[in-house]
# Entry
Amino acid sequence: DVKVTQSSRYLVKRTGEKVFLECVQDMDHENMFWYRQDPGLGLRLIYFSYDVKMKEKGDIPEGYSVSREKKERFSLILESASTNQTSMYLCASTMDGASNQPQHFGDGTRLSIL
Amino acid sequence: GEDVEQSLFLSVREGDSSVINCTYTDSSSTYLYWYKQEPGAGLQLLTYIFSNMDMKQDQRLTVLLNKKDKHLSLRIADTQTGDSAIYFCALPFGSSNTGKLIFGQGTTLQVKP
# Structure
């Protein structure tokens, strides 16, 4: 079974802090994704990566950056956290883009910015 | 652009059947997915259907696909309290080979004892 692990289930940070959310997958997947989930809005894609050091913006990249230095790890960075970034953050991975394989998700990080 | 729509809430009694509906605009998808999210957890792949199929059955789950109307549904037979969750339909995003999915807003299924 694919295992996608997010480093924290719950995180509380202060406005203006730099925040790192970590995600690791163990199935040698090419593609990795970061979403945020808010009530009534479903999942919105922040960034995704299709290879090491390769990244593309999703629908809502403002205020976020990402890092993919190793294939198994995809980090989401909040450069200067703000209260409107309080949300549930979900990481996902998939084998590659061509095979129409499903995405596999981590358990999520519930982030609160005070 | 692509759009996926779901109703936000469904309430059923334990033992009844639940039907969760999804409509979409992009017709080029090869696979269409249903995910389940239990409270406080991530999304778990529940089932999927290939676009050349009309129906797929997997134990208590039945997926129906009407390509002409661009309508996907998930039927849960004999709904149990453990089925209470948010259900998302998801489709590959357009024709790009990125592995991206577009998700519906999610339907919260409430099962009353």
Q: What stands out?
A: Chain A has a mean pLDDT of 93. Chain A has no helices and eleven strands.
